[in-house]
TrEMBL record:
Signal peptide: none annotated. SUPFAM superfamilies: Dimeric alpha+beta barrel (SSF54909). Belongs to the YciI family. Residues 1-111 form the YCII-related domain. Pfam families: YCII. It comes from the Bacteria. Gene3D superfamilies: Dimeric alpha+beta barrel. PANTHER family: BLL7171 PROTEIN (PTHR35174:SF3), BLL7171 PROTEIN-RELATED (PTHR35174). The lineage of its organism: Bacteria, Pseudomonadati, Planctomycetota, Planctomycetia, Pirellulales. This is YCII-related domain protein. It comes from Rosistilla ulvae.
């Protein structure tokens, strides 16, 4: 089953060296998962200050800078994995460095109609 692991954290809690270490450690986990056929994709996101949001309301496009949600934790990256079950997804999520300073949300992905079920 495919899962998306959404990484949430307070961007201000990370030093440059911590962010660099996090990426190195995360890439090692991704390489391990890829060798096992469980990694599909992952990427950190640029800071929330670079975000643009688009909304359609009554047929009119609204474009604003950033999501500016009322929270200190922002979406900072994602992983897409293909594993047997939620327990395996949880085991991977707890290994990820961002889980130590933020939150890793695990969400199952709906299969697309043209995508064969696992």
């Amino acid at each position: 089953m495919k899962y998306m692991l959404l990484i949430y954290s307070d961007e201000s809690r990370w030093t440059d060296s911590e962010r660099e270490s996090c990426m190195v450690e995360s890439m090692a986990i991704c390489k391990e998962l890829e060798a096992e056929g469980k990694w599909i994709a992952s990427s950190p996101l640029h800071p929330v200050s670079t975000a643009t949001s688009v909304r359609l309301r009554e047929g009119k496009r609204q474009i604003t800078d950033g999501p500016f949600a009322e929270t200190t934790e922002q979406l900072g990256g994602y992983y897409i994995i293909d594993v047997d079950d939620l327990d395996e997804a949880i085991a991977i999520a707890e290994r990820l460095p961002p889980a130590r300073k933020g939150t890793v949300e695990i969400r199952p992905l709906f299969p697309l109609p043209s995508e064969p079920e696992r």
